[in-house]
Amino acid sequence: MKRRELETNYENGETNIELPKGYNDRRTLKQRESIVDVQCAIFIQSLGGFSEKTMTFDMQFFRVCEWEDDRLANLTDELMFLSEDVKIWKPPVHMVSLAEADVVQLHPTMLTPTGQVIVRHE
């Protein structure tokens, strides 16, 4: 596959890329004819405010999810941050049982040369 020219916004380090012809961000990728292996981790930044009476506590954390999309492999030679304009397939990962939640901050999506996609939510 021929590498495409990348347009980088140096102010925030995000990159616009031209996706492969026929790429559909709404279609679930079929990786090796099996289920897509999406790995997620939660990193706890703080934990406190425990209340035995209301059975609640406060926690600040961020979640990182990653998976491989073979359709995006070989688009870059190094790790890059995709701009929000680049629409790629993302799995529906939901958090449940949140009593109150602050606004979720979505960090730029990262793409590796092998097609590994990394998304961080804070």
Total domain modules: 1
Shape: elongated
Largest beta sheet, briefly? 7 strands, mixed
> How much β-strand is present in the residues?
35-45%
Radius of gyration: 18 Å
> Total strand count, please?
7
Assigned CATH architecture: Distorted Sandwich
Major sheet: arrangement of strands: 1-2-5-6-7-4-3
**Which oligomerization state do the chains in this entry correspond to?**
single chain
SSE run: EEEEEEE
Helix residue percentage: under 10%
**Continuous helix count:** 0
Report the uncertain regions: 1-11
SSE-based structural type: mainly beta
Describe the structure.
The chain is built from no helices and 7 strands. A hairpin with a 4-residue loop joins β6 (109-111) and β7 (116-121). The radius of gyration is 18 Å and the shape is elongated. 0% of the residues lie in helices and 36% in strands. It is mainly β and 122 residues long. A 7-stranded mixed sheet has the order 1-2-5-6-7-4-3, with no helix packed on it. Mean pLDDT is 78; it is low at 1-11. It has a single domain (7-121), classed as Acetylcholine Binding Protein, Chain: A, CATH 2.70.170.
Topology (elements, then pairings):
Elements: E1 7-9, E2 14-16, E3 39-51, E4 56-68, E5 80-82, E6 109-111, E7 116-121
Q: What's the quick description here?
A:
By secondary structure, the protein is an all-beta fold. It has strands spanning 7-9, 14-16, 39-51, 56-68, 80-82, 109-111, 116-121. A hairpin with a 4-residue loop joins strand 1 and strand 2 (14-16).
